[in-house]
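User: Design a sequence. Structure:
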């Protein structure tokens, strides 16, 4: 995506609940860096992870665990 002044940005998807997909996501990032900018490093990375629920999550242990996975574990893995 062209964001003006000759600068480009891309978005890449990663399922933070599926830690097994991390290796594939790193490969996608590496390929995108090479294809878009002919490099293997970047200056800025903006992480944005989230999810939604239509039930009160504090009453649903499973959903609460999923929220913790996205919000807390996602920062470290």
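Assistant: Done.
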């Amino acid at each position: 995506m062209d964001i003006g002044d000759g600068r480009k940005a891309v978005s890449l998807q990663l399922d933070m609940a599926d830690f097994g997909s991390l290796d594939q996501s790193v490969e996608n990032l590496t390929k995108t860096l090479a294809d878009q900018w002919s490099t293997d490093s970047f200056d800025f990375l903006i992480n944005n992870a989230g999810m939604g629920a239509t039930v009160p999550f504090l009453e649903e242990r499973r959903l609460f665990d999923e929220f913790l996975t996205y919000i807390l574990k996602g920062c470290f893995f």
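The CA atoms of residues 15 and 21 lie 7 Å apart. The two ends are 27 Å apart (CA to CA).
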